[in-house]
Amino acid sequence: MSGIDDTNAKWSLLVSNLGLSLMASVPMQTATDALDHVTPHLAGGGEVRHGQRQMAAAVESAAAEHHHLFVQAGTGTGKSLAYLVPALLSGRRTVVATATKALQDQLAQKDLPFLTEHLGMEFTFAVLKGRSNYVCRQRLSEIAGTDTGQTSLDGLAEHARADQLVRIKQWAAETRTGDRAELEFEPSVATWSAVSVGARECPGAARCPSGAVCFAEQARAAASTADLIVVNQHLLALDLALDGTLLPEHDLVVIDEAHQLEDITSSVAGLELTGGRFAAFARLVRGVVANDTLTADIERAGDALGDAIDAMSDTRLQAPIADKLRVALNQARDRVERASNALRNVPDNAPGDVGARKQRALQASITLLVDIDLVMNFDSERSVAWIERDSTIHLAPIDISDIMRRSLWSKKIAILTSATMPNNLSTRLGLAADEHTILDVGSPFDFEHNALLYCAASLPDPRDPGYKPATHRELEALISAAGGRTLALFTSWAAMREAVEYLRPRLPWPLLAQGDLPKSALLEQFSDQHATSLFATMGFWQGIDVPGPSLSLVVIDRLPFPRPDDPLLAARRALIGADAFSQIDVPRAATLLAQGAGRLIRSATDRGVVAVLDPRLARGRSYRWQIISALPPMPRTREREDAESFLRRIRDGA
């Protein structure tokens, strides 16, 4: 096996006689040299980017010297190659975690295959997803044993579509990966639930009749030998919360879109408990134990818990848990424990697939019992529990720094990067100043000449009754100057709908709104029809890439401060005290605003205006400079005429 690029004399790779992977060899080429080598092969011809080379050198140094690195890399840096190249050259097994599927797909389908062809060394990579992303062969086998294919013995396929089940079965016989993403159609939630198994139910390969041919286990096995593993942040966070028991052994962790890491980890390290989980558990038990009274009792306990949860909707829970909810939780726990004992009495070698279904139901009972106990005995100094209007008990750790110190900072080399990174992110994640390096490589794009930030100083305060009609008039004027070509981002669905209702009959160009079409179709139409405007909410503030003439104006209705009554953030504020607003609210608003503004300039030739229709950014607020400093270095104006003039010049091709 040879990974030597014969056209490049700088490569010198040492390969042992034992046939070890070339990742164990020592390349003599530096990361910046390697970038220079691969860049000309990029589609359309690549260009040397100072920030990319600076970042690659810093990642290389961190991997070699065993220190943590935080890198803010603005739009256009090419940060994925800037961390992939030095990670691959380091000889360390690497996990790369992303927050969005789009970036995960980019790495797996574009960047890594590109480096496989052009980097000049041999390496392997794998994509690893959560278990429920893979079709379960055992579930398919159980469903195939029924008469219609519509109902299984445990009832989980009761609402599945027969036609979709047939197509999935045919696909499962041909696919190599079993990954849902490879399906050529989108199955219903009920259908996919019938043919997949989550971590709460899966008993593991050793206890499953189909364990030897399990797609999820095959993916994990492939990842265990890969030099680089691509995962999402949820899977990484779960691995951290479980002390590294999910992912294969690795030395280096690269966390892209790292500004989302705290929230994702807090969510994954917590739990959600609903009455509906007991109905699902009862269906599992019914497929194993012939005891209608037992399963009916479980369902009634779930209903009673659901009623108790609904009665406390929109409430932050206090320890100890209130009596009515505690009684319902105790009753539910008793029913689950009875079912668990009944399941244990079923022989593992019961006829047919009963043994397999027993193991799945038993695993579900264990998870359910653990979650009930965690809710009933939560520590209010370390965790926060609350009930939202979704009839769900939520439990999450207030501070994740202990998890990060225990499972990441003390055991791995970590590279965290994002186009926008809160200035206190490392502190929030429990990393001391002397334990890491912070680097900002900027952006190669010319924001000074190609962009303008308009802060609407003349508008009323967002709490004023006249604010909404004033923003609608402002939007109309700006969109008219731009000739459409607008992405308007709103902090609430209500604000978006009101703006759409006002502007749709007044604009001569198409106006698309989130919810009109699937997200991908909206973006395709917005990109293809240059005069179109697109109005959207939080799901479009990040990960949207529309370069070219279709987008010359990004409008943001107001500063995206988090909800003051958010239970988790309220608990974090209480923990920090008097400085909470500057440590919690302002960094979050600054990061999200920068993400929204970052939708504008996506290529070196893009030009446009970012308009923030919140006068607090323009006047009299001390925090506004912290927010402005998080944005790309654009010239600023308070005058709408300046913004309109800039937009008209772009519209007219000047």
TL;DR of this structure?
The protein is of the alpha/beta class. The chain contains 24 helices and 18 strands.
The portion of residues forming beta strands comes to: 5-15%
Q: What kind of assembly state do the chains in view correspond to?
A: single chain
| Helical segment count | 24
Shape: globular
How much helix is in the residues?
A: 40-55%
Low-pLDDT residue spans: 1-28, 147-154
- Average pLDDT confidence is 90
Secondary structure elements and their pairing?
Layout: H1 31-38, H2 50-65, E1 68-73, H3 79-89, E2 94-98, H4 101-118, E3 125-127, H5 137-144, H6 162-172, H7 189-195, H8 215-225, E4 228-232, H9 233-241, E5 252-256, H10 261-269, E6 271-273, H11 276-286, H12 292-311, E7 315-316, H13 323-344, H14 354-376, E8 383-387, E9 393-397, H15 401-409, E10 413-418, H16 425-428, E11 436-442, H17 447-450, E12 451-455, H18 467-482, E13 486-489, H19 493-503, E14 511-513, H20 519-528, E15 533-536, E16 553-556, H21 567-576, H22 580-597, E17 608-612, H23 624-629, E18 636-637, H24 640-651
Parallel strand pairs: 1-10, 1-11, 2-4, 2-5, 3-4, 5-10, 12-17, 12-18, 13-15, 13-16, 14-15, 16-17
Antiparallel strand pairs: 6-9, 7-8, 8-9
Describe the protein in words:
With 654 residues, the protein is α/β, with parallel strands linked by helices. Helix content is 43%, strand content 12%. It is built from 24 helices and 18 strands. Strands 3-4-2-5-10-1-11 form a 7-stranded parallel beta sheet, with helices on both faces. Helix 20 links the parallel strand 14 and strand 15. The chain starts with 30 loop residues before the first helix and ends with a helix.
